[in-house]
Design a protein that fits this description.
Blueprint: E1 4-8, H1 15-31, E2 38-40, H2 59-71, E3 75-78, H3 82-90, E4 95-98, H4 106-116, E5 122-126, H5 133-145, E6 150-155, H6 173-181, E7 187-189, H7 191-195, H8 201-210, E8 215-219, H9 237-246, H10 256-292, H11 300-311, H12 317-338
Parallel strand pairs: 1-2, 1-8, 2-3, 3-4, 4-5, 5-6, 6-7, 7-8
Helix pairs in contact: 1-2, 1-9, 3-4, 4-5, 6-10, 11-12
Bound molecules: phosphoenolpyruvate and manganese (II) ion.
Phosphoenolpyruvate binds near residues 10, 101, 156, 190 and 193.
Length: about 350
C-alpha cells in the first residue's frame, strides 16, 4: 500500500517561514527518498485564547501558492466556511481540510460541502472533537454527496479530561470502525495533534501504520521552538524525515475485525493498568486510616465479599481458577503494602 505523507507548519506565519520550511522539507524528503505528497499550513487558525496568533490570513495563500508553483507539491490548508473555500480557489489551492472544531457543526460542514460541490477539490475530514463516529461519517458523506471524488479522513484523537498521556486520546477503535464501515476511504493519522509533544510522535505514528492507516499529516516547522502555535508538537524537517524513514511499513495483514478487537483489547489493558494503579494508591490511603484508628490490616469477611464480586460473572471454572490466583496476588500485595 502506498502511503500519503503530508507535512508542514501548524500555521503559516510569514513568507520566510512558509518558504524556508518548504525548502528544507523538500530537501530532506529528497535526501531520504521520501515522497512529500502535500505541504500543509494553517492560514486561518481557530484558537482557544482570544490573544493567540490566529494565522496570517489571505496573504498566506500567496505564500502557499508560491510553494506549490516552485516545488510542484500540492498545498493544503484548513477552511471553516464557504468564503475561505472561494479564496483558496482564487489562489489555485484545491486541497483543504476540515478541522476538528468545525467538524462538530454539520451546518458549517454542509456550507463548505456546497462551496466545493462538483469541483476537483481534495477534502480531508478530521475527526470531530467529540468521539461520535456517526458525526464523522456524516461529514464525509456530505462531501461524497457533493460529488467530491477525493475525500480522506484524518484521525487526530479526541479531547478527554481523563487522558493524561496524550493531548488527545487515541480511541483507536473509532477510526478502525470507520475503516470497517468505509473500507475504500483513505484514513490518515495526525500524530502531532494527537500526541501534543514531539517525544510521543514516533510510537503513535508506528501504531497508525500497524493499524493500516494510509499515511500521516505531521506538523513540521524549520524552527519549532519559535513557532507561534503548537510549539511542543512540531518536528524539524530533519526529524520528520527520520520519523518517516524509520517507520516499519509492513502491513499487518490481519483483517479489520481482528484489528478492531485488538484495539478494543488495548483500550481495556490501558484501563486495567490505570485501575490497578489507582487501587494501589487507594490501598495506601486505607492503610493510613487503619493505622490512625488502630484497625487490623486483614479483615477476612471483607475479602470474601471482594472474591464473590469477581466470581459472579461466570461459572467457567478455568476462569474462576485464574481469578482466584490473581486475587490471591492482589490481596497479598495489599497486605504487604499496608504492613
Ligand atoms: C491543524 O491541523 O492545524 C489543526 C488545527 O488541527 P485540529 O483541527 O485537528 O485541531
Ligand atoms: Mn496545530
Amino acid at each position: 500500500m502506498d502511503r500519503i505523507w503530508i507535512a508542514g507548519p501548524c500555521a503559516a506565519e510569514s513568507r520566510e517561514q512558509v518558504l524556508t520550511t518548504a525548502e528544507q522539507l523538500v530537501m530532506c524528503a529528497h535526501n531520504n527518498n521520501i515522497p512529500l505528497h502535500y505541504y500543509r499550513a494553517g492560514v486561518w487558525k481557530v484558537r482557544s485564547a482570544p490573544d493567540s496568533f490566529a494565522g496570517a490570513g489571505e496573504v498566506a495563500l500567496v505564500w502557499l501558492q508560491e510553494v506549490q508553483q516552485h516545488y510542484g507539491i500540492p498545498v493544503c490548508t484548513e477552511v471553516m466556511n464557504a468564503e475561505q473555500v472561494e479564496l483558496c480557489a482564487k489562489h489555485d489551492i484545491h486541497n483543504v481540510w476540515i478541522g476538528a472544531r468545525t467538524a462538530v457543526n454539520p451546518i458549517d460542514v454542509q456550507q463548505i460541502a456546497d462551496a466545493v460541490r462538483h469541483s476537483d477539490f481534495t477534502v480531508m475530514v478530521k475527526n470531530p472533537m467529540i468521539p461520535d463516529l456517526k458525526l464523522w461519517m456524516g461529514n464525509i458523506e456530505r462531501f461524497r454527496k457533493a460529488d467530491i471524488r477525493q475525500v480522506m479522513a484524518i484521525h487526530r484523537g479526541f479531547p478527554d479530561a481523563k487522558e493524561n498521556v496524550y493531548r488527545n486520546a487515541p480511541l483507536w477503535h473509532i477510526p478502525i470502525d470507520l475503516k470497517v464501515l468505509l473500507p475504500e476511504l483513505p484514513i490518515l493519522c495526525d500524530p502531532s495533534h494527537l500526541c501534543g509533544q514531539v517525544r510521543l510522535i514516533p510510537e503513535i505514528a508506528q501504531l497508525a501504520m500497524n493499524y493500516g492507516f494510509n499515511g500521516l499529516m505531521t506538523e513540521c516547522h524549520y524552527q519549532p521552538a519559535q513557532a507561534l502555535s503548537d510549539t511542543e508538537q512540531q518536528l524539524s524537517p530533519k526529524e520528520w524525515a527520520t520519523l518517516i524513514s524509520q517507520l516499519d511499513l509492513r502491513t499487518d495483514g490481519s483483517d479489520l475485525e481482528l484489528l478492531k478487537q485488538r484495539t478494543v483489547l488495548e483500550n481495556i489493558d490501558h484501563q486495567i493498568s490505570e485501575l490497578l494503579y489507582q487501587r494501589m494508591k487507594t490501598v495506601d490511603e486505607i492503610a493510613d486510616i487503619k493505622r490512625k484508628n488502630h484497625i487490623a490490616v486483614v479483615q477476612p469477611q471483607q475479602w470474601q465479599q471482594v472474591v464473590q464480586r469477581y466470581m459472579k460473572h461466570t461459572e467457567d471454572t478455568a476462569y474462576q481458577n485464574f481469578i482466584e490466583q490473581f486475587l490471591e496476588l492482589l490481596h497479598q500485595s495489599s497486605i504487604n503494602r499496608q504492613k
